[in-house]
Write a structure and sequence with these properties.
1 helix, mainly beta, 8-stranded antiparallel sheet, globular, Jelly Rolls, 9-stranded antiparallel sheet
């Protein structure tokens, strides 16, 4: 009779999809199936690896600004829309967008190979500037550009409670609008784009209906294969807003997805 091979605690368990888990992580996964509960937080199966970008800002550095653009911690200060002032600093777990005077727009850009903006998921968490909302001075902008500058995803959130989301060809993209609630707080933005190029937006886990405004939006100056953030603040200074994570991955994932740092 053949002897069964024993499993040692140090041995990885190979899942049907080829993923290797430690024995504690495998047991956590198995327990979640029996009890209809999520795997234990912190285990290897409690998060999803973002295949295109997983940015949780692990390093310390900066400031970067127009005079000393970097790169620092993998990011470069951006003036693609002209010199707007401000600076960006890094501490573990966050990228700090620092505005020190009126009309400053601290901005940072990172090179990332983004093959397409169809069938994709983008998620970011940021904390607003602490000043009064509703003036229209504070804006939070994120841009994704594919190779060849052929397609763009652009999110612009204004502290008046209106945002625009633009997705499609860099010349002729579709633009949508939606409401949001600025409150000086922290927000998780989760955007998916279907294989057919249709976006879906969630803010803090809540589905936000998009209103189609039209197409024809034109984006120039943004480098190919990049993700960038531009934050403007007002009317009091100095102020700092914080980005704590940015994830980009292929596929349409739900807003409940926890990404691995």
């Amino acid at each position: 009779m053949a002897r069964k091979q024993s499993i040692l605690a140090a041995d990885p368990v190979v899942m049907p999809n080829g993923q290797k888990l430690s024995l504690p992580d495998f047991l956590s996964w198995a327990k979640s199936l029996d009890h209809d509960t999520p795997p234990q937080h912190g285990s290897a199966v409690a998060c999803v690896v973002a295949g295109i970008l997983s940015e949780c800002f692990p390093c310390t550095g900066g400031p970067i600004d127009g005079a000393s653009p970097g790169p620092v911690c993998g990011w470069t200060f951006s003036e693609v829309f002209g010199p707007k002032g401000g600076n960006v600093t890094f501490t573990p777990g966050q990228m700090e967008m620092n505005a020190t005077a009126n009309n400053e727009v601290p901005a940072a850009l990172k090179s990332v190979a983004i093959p397409t903006l169809n069938a994709i998921t983008f998620q970011t968490t940021f904390t607003e500037f602490p000043g009064a909302t509703g003036s229209g001075f504070s804006q939070y902008e994120f841009y994704l550009m594919t190779g060849g500058v052929s397609r763009v995803l652009a999110l612009v959130m204004v502290d008046t409670g209106i945002l625009t989301l633009t997705v499609g060809p860099s010349a002729g993209a579709d633009t949508y609008s939606a409401p949001w609630t600025p409150n000086n707080g922290t927000h998780t933005i989760h955007i998916t784009v279907s294989a057919g190029g249709v976006p879906t937006l969630y803010i803090d886990g809540i589905l936000v209906p998009l209103t189609f405004l039209g197409n024809g939006a034109l984006f120039t100056g943004l480098p190919a294969n990049t993700v960038s953030a531009f934050f403007s603040s007002g009317p009091t200074f100095p102020q700092t807003a914080v980005i704590s994570e940015i994830f980009i991955t292929s596929g349409v994932l739900p807003p409940t997805t926890t990404f691995c740092c």
